[in-house]
Amino acid sequence: MANSRVKEFFKLGEVGNYILGIFKKPDPNKPTNFNLRMMHGINKISILMFLGAIVFIFIKKVIL
């Protein structure tokens, strides 16, 4: 019973599953094209830049 509470607490939902799905290895059985690959590449870059900016702001406000 406690195990199910822990799983429910850490449930990510649709948005979390989408974000984690971007960084997974692509399924070889799915058809892809150039535009789709570029879109996912840009999404990866933007998520990493956003997280980097959050870390930078945190360091600037808290430490300095």
Explain what this protein looks like in three dimensions.
With 64 residues, the chain is mainly alpha-helical. The protein has one domain. It is flat, with a radius of gyration of 17 Å. The model has no long low-confidence stretch (mean pLDDT 80).
Write the layout of secondary structure elements.
Layout: H1 2-9, H2 13-22, H3 34-63
Summarize the model shown.
The chain is mainly alpha-helical and 64 residues long.
Features:
mainly alpha, 64 residues, 3 helices
Number of helices: 3
Give the strand content: under 5%
The succession of helices and strands, N to C, reads HHH
Mean pLDDT: 80
Q: Could you say which structural class the secondary elements and strand pairing correspond to?
A: mainly alpha
C-alpha termini separation: 45 Å
Helix content: over 70%
Number of domains: 1
Shape: flat
User: How many strands, what sense, and barrel or not for the largest sheet?
Assistant: none
Task: Compute the number of strand runs.
Answer: 0
C-alpha-based Rg, rounded: 17 Å
**Uncertain spans, ≥5 residues at pLDDT below 50?**
none
